[in-house]
Automatic annotation (TrEMBL), chains A, B:
Family stated for the protein in its record: Belongs to the FapR family.
Annotated organism of origin: Thermobacillus composti (strain DSM 18247 / JCM 13945 / KWC4)
Keywords, in A-Z order: DNA-binding, Fatty acid biosynthesis, Fatty acid metabolism, Lipid biosynthesis, Lipid metabolism, Repressor, Transcription, Transcription regulation
Thioesterase domain mapped to chain residues: 116-167
Function as written in the Swiss-Prot or TrEMBL entry: Transcriptional factor involved in regulation of membrane lipid biosynthesis by repressing genes involved in fatty acid and phospholipid metabolism.
Gene3D superfamilies: Hotdog Thioesterase, Winged helix-like DNA-binding domain superfamily/Winged helix DNA-binding domain
Protein name (database record): Transcription factor FapR
GO MF, one example: DNA binding
Gene designation per UniProt: fapR
SUPFAM superfamilies named among the record's database cross-references: Thioesterase/thiol ester dehydrase-isomerase (SSF54637), Winged helix' DNA-binding domain (SSF46785)
Example GO biological process: negative regulation of fatty acid biosynthetic process
Membrane listed as a keyword: no
Length: 199, 199
DNA sequence: CCCCTCTTAAAACCAGGTACTAAATCAGTA
DNA sequence: TACTGATTTAGTACCTGGTTTTAAGAGGGG
């Protein structure tokens, strides 16, 4: 019954909406014991969009995530590819790739980009990663664009050694040394990315 | 201009909505050259809900997905953890982790499980991966349950070396050697997983 | 010709809002 | 005490993107 101070109400409101984005203003009036106009003023002040807008944003995010996941097969966009020689791919660090608290990209995304590229650059129907030696040189933050460059250092019948360097601007942020195995028969792998599997 | 037969229109309608769920009935009238009433009858017949309902469903799905993904931060379920000593996590290979054509798990998921565990086992507020040396020993297929075991081999003030072995049943499928850096200040990392970031 | 399906139209209504105007309430202070 | 300004509540008009219902043409087929 006792009215909360405005600030506290704002906090509660934000919290309530955050952990149930599907709540209507009308339901919020019941929980916060203020009029619907107050709720709406509060949302306005806090920059919280209306229910439908919230749902739309969520839907769009998940839709984009699904759509942008033919990347699911090859992580990062390959912009240049000279089979058995070299390749370049670009990968932008987005919300879903970072720790929410720190904004630092999770390591396996950088690994995934490099790994995908290393496999893609090998000119064979089935190519899988056998071993990898990797180094995270500096942390990568939300919004940064990672450019990975792969160079095939040696290329035998069965195996190829691929070096990958990932840059953000001028800085090297990641370095990886991959041993890629060609040919479908003699898999010794836990699942490298396959060029042939891209969409 | 020429009107399509009803069946064909239905197919087109379903297709259009499928690959742009955010389309309104009004926009559909333009694309299909029929009245808005016809569009609505069609949706009714096909059991396609209205725009808002579609968005809501998508939003709910993604919300559920996010909620059920504290896994998002640590890949695999940690079933045992002795800080600075050892840890065990379980990760089941599902549809979304494999190449659709071959059913072989993509390497970065195995890497992610091992990396997450390696970081989690380090008893520090902020721990990030500096380097990793990994080996995919055999491919892992859809449905297989990967059990990763991490052992802290040496643990200094700044750095810790963690070895991770991943098994499917009795077989070793993956092996990784991680150098994990403690403490927030001296990051030299591209983003390892952080224990503190788990939900 | 009537009947039937398909299509279009029009009107009433709804949820969940926005935008705007205005009044009531409360706190502090000159 | 009265004035001032922020806060809260109320009310109205309007919007989108629909649903429901009721009705009426259009175009065949028997």
């Amino acid at each position: 019954m006792e009215r909360l101070p405005k600030k506290e109400r704002h906090q509660r409101l934000a919290r309530l909406i955050e952990d149930n984005p599907f709540i209507t203003d009308r339901e919020l009036t019941r929980l916060l014991k203020v009029s619907i106009q107050t709720i709406r003023l509060d949302r306005l002040e806090l920059g919280i969009p209306e229910l439908r807008e919230r749902m739309k944003l969520m839907a769009e995010r998940s839709f984009d995530a699904v759509r942008s996941l033919p990347l699911h097969e090859v992580i990062g966009e390959i912009v240049d590819l000279q089979l058995d020689k070299s390749g370049i791919s670009i990968f932008e660090i987005r919300e879903e790739h970072v720790f929410s608290r720190t904004g630092i990209a999770r390591g396996h995304h950088l690994f995934a980009q490099a790994n995908s590229l290393a496999v893609a650059v090998i000119n064979d129907e089935v190519a899988l990663t056998a071993t990898a030696d990797i180094r995270f040189i500096r942390q990568v933050k939300l919004g940064e664009k990672c450019i990975a460059k792969a160079y095939v250092r040696s290329s035998g019948k069965r195996k190829a050694r691929v070096e990958v360097f990932t840059y953000v601007g001028e800085e090297t942020v990641f370095r990886g040394d991959f041993l890629i195995v060609r040919s479908a028969g003699a898999l010794q792998d836990g699942g490298g990315d396959r060029l042939a599997d891209r969409d």
